[in-house]
Amino acid sequence: MSTSSARQPLQFAYWVPNVSGGLVISQIEQRTHWGAEYNRQLAKIAEQAGFDYALTQIRFTAGYGAENQHESVTFSQDLLSHTTKLKVIAALLPGPWNPVLAAKQIATISHLYGPRIAVNIVSGWFRGEFKAIGEPWLDHEERYLRSEEFIRCLRGIWREEHFTFAGDFYRFRDYALKPKPLNPLPEIFQGGSSRAARDMAARVSDWYFTNGNTPEGVAKQVADIQTKARQQQHAVKIGLNGFVIARETEAQAQAVLAEIIVKANPDAVKGFQHEVKNAGSASPEGEGNWAASSFDDLVQYNDGFKTNLIGTPQQIAERIMALKHAGVDLLLLAFLHFQEDVAFFGREVIPLVRELERQEEAAAVL
Ligand SMILES: Cc1cc2nc3c(=O)[nH]c(=O)nc-3n(C[C@H](O)[C@H](O)[C@H](O)COP(=O)(O)O)c2cc1C
């Protein structure tokens, strides 16, 4: 359990639907749109609703329903320009991005909009995408070695007056980035579940994101990462993915889940399954992000049904507290009808979580 943060209020992030088709691979009606106007409105609703962060996705090609994909850094910048408090996390894929371009882009965005920009360094899972854009497909462990160098370079460029680095993937000599980003420096997120993903988090990331899971499942990952992080005097926080279906009754919420799964597009889910199992089982220990995902789990891109935030606001708030006790610092949430569901979550669920947190705080003081 991350004792340092157990008493901090849990933070909330939402997935920006900057990729078409929403966050489930299903033909169910979704009143979510991937375009600019919908997302600007959503960002305003989310900050009003009490969300701390928005996470943009990076995809370069279609596949499994994601016909259109807006680019993450540009899109993040636009959301910052339409909000005042929300922090926006831009996904960066090493390969298409190199660290100096990323460091410079993000530094400028921090000056334009204040220090509300953060980054999510993704390591890649979609071999077909790499092939389509002419990027070499490194094996699983090499992808993480490159991501770790990428993170070390970003932070070094942002922090040091003159940055020098000699790695296997990147080299810098006395490089002086000016201006530096505003303080506090942009936070660095990274995601996965594999041994390599966890070890990288324990060494260099500010935040570790992982796929949907139960409190028991996530507690195991937290213990593993936090033990190693402490040994290395590194502080890392934990973000967990979840798909929320909050309705007035549990039966209504379960009916929506059943409809999402019944209307899943089987060919697209199977294609996604093939691609991600390929990526996950490529990690030597076989504990990658989707190593144990069933067909139903994969209808949500990041195993979000497993987190079980499906029910009434009260049930969801109680389950959120169990996740917090398991060491989760932030919940990264996806929804079916983003604008209306985010507003409902902010009105009906977040206040219950804050109340439960206050009760725990008071009980701890006694
Ligand atoms: C919360 C989260 C967000 C992610 N966002 C992206 C993304 O935008 N683009 C992408 O190509 N991969 C994304 N990934 C995939 C990861 O970078 C990584 O390739 C994948 O989780 C493989 O993990 P593994 O090493 O555990 O198999 C994301 C993963 C997580 C957990």
From TrEMBL:
NCBIfam families: LLM_DMSO2_sfnG. Signal peptide: none annotated. It comes from Candidatus Pantoea multigeneris. Residues 34-329 form the Luciferase-like domain. This is Dimethyl sulfone monooxygenase SfnG. Keywords: Flavoprotein, FMN, Monooxygenase, Oxidoreductase. GO terms for molecular function: monooxygenase activity. Pfam families: Bac_luciferase. It comes from the Bacteria. The gene is sfnG. CDD domains: Alkanesulfonate_monoxygenase. InterPro entries: DMSO2_SphG, Luciferase-like_dom, Luciferase-like_sf, SsuD_RutA_monooxygenase.
